[in-house]
Design brief:
Elements: H1 4-36, H2 41-68, H3 87-105, H4 111-129, E1 134-139, H5 145-153, E2 171-175, E3 184-188, H6 196-211, E4 215-220, H7 226-237, E5 241-246, H8 254-268, E6 277-279, E7 287-289, E8 292-294, H9 301-363, H10 371-388, H11 395-411, H12 414-429, H13 437-464, H14 473-488, H15 490-503
Parallel strand pairs: 1-3, 1-4, 4-5, 5-6
Antiparallel strand pairs: 2-3, 7-8
Length: 506
Amino acid sequence: MRSVPYLRLLLLLALLALFAGLIVWLIQSFLELYYATRYHPILGGLLIGVLVLLLLVFLAASIYYLFLFRPAPKTERLPRPAPPETPAEKWEAARRNLAQLEAQMAQIQDQVARAALAERSARLAQQLAQPQLKVVVFGTGSAGKTSLVNALLGRRVGAVGATLGTTQAVAVYDWDLPGIPHPVQIVDCPGILEIGPAGVMREQEAQAQAQAADLLLVVVDGDLRQSEVDPLRRLIALGKRALLVLNKIDRYTPEEQRLLLQRLRERVYPLIQPEDVLPAAADPAPVRLGSQTWQPEPEVAAVRDRVQAVLYAEGGSLALDNALLQSQQLGEEAKRIIQAQLRRQAEEVIDRFQWIVTGVVFANPIPALDLLAIAAINAQMVVELGSLYGCKMNLQQGRELALSLAKTLAGLGLVEGALQLTTGILATVAEVSVVGFLATAPIQAASAGYLTRIAGKSFIEYFQRNQSWGEGGMQAVVRAQVESAQKSGWLKEFVRQASERVFRLR
């Protein structure tokens, strides 16, 4: 993609060389003609004047097009700031993110969304001031998550069962661990990979809880499936610390346990270290001895001891890492809300200007769609769109941007395409029986409105990318907007509305 401007430049230079040869030939021809008319001073001077004028026009056109097709200067990417490493740096970065979030929330018009962000921000600020570690038990339905929580707490706090999806909602309990100054929150989540709309909603809640965890206990009851590895990989990529618990080991022989644990350690390495893959029997099956039934005690000591050791050694760092991640995610969510809000406002601006252009072109039609005339109107649209996105520009700058995009539209053949497309759609909307002005004006006006919308949507992308067209350049953005408009069927609806509002065709 980046080599295209250079190829165009080479082609332009070749054409300039051809034109230069033609100019030399033209000069020679003029000189011969001048010598033939040298006894007529007025006619000779006129010929010289025409020649000079042609040379000046050629020179101006060459300079203009060389400037138009020059390769875009390479922008130097500023080095990214180093991520915080020390506890003090992480705490300060999280606090700074929360302060920026306050400024972002002031821009959000949706009161419900703003209130939800404010509540989450307040909880995170409290977490920074008074850290409380959070352990989230995560995994597929009926892998034994609730049984593991019961066994770790030493009391029955949640219902267990063989039915998939026994845990329907998030449950939070306090867990006292020796050596940890404050009670640890242990969270029992609904299972993932459940079917049906309700299962999808429960999985989304489980994923949200896992992303907010300081430490994850990922529970399985057998070998890992790929559908279980993928969520784990995404959580580890966020920086989450995880322990993998192989539950229900009482169902396997000692040799099967050894082989299965070895297999799991190989599957999850290096996401999870071998010492963090632990066996457990949270709710062992009853054992029948003769006429009596014996209920074995839960075997979760390895899990409890490893959790305690990790939280004791890494708890402070894990809490800060989690707070920093949560503050970053809140900031990104606020940005998405603001971007959606700005896009709605920008769409209103585009709608207004597309109708202005449509009306103006219909009232004063031209033989062919004159993009330069439309750009004069679109310049104000560019200025208003830029103002929405915090980019202050004057009308001259807006006109230059509108003209550059108009040239791109023409270069991509979208002007002729818009005329043909609009003509076809207009014929299906209403039968046009008039001639001359009335036959061409609706088509040209609808085409102008269509191209104005394409231009406006393209400029939204430009301003959202901090005044950059991206790797593919302006052409790629314009093409994407054209494809989007065609797929959505927007043009047909627009022509229908235009015929009702402006054209009055029945």
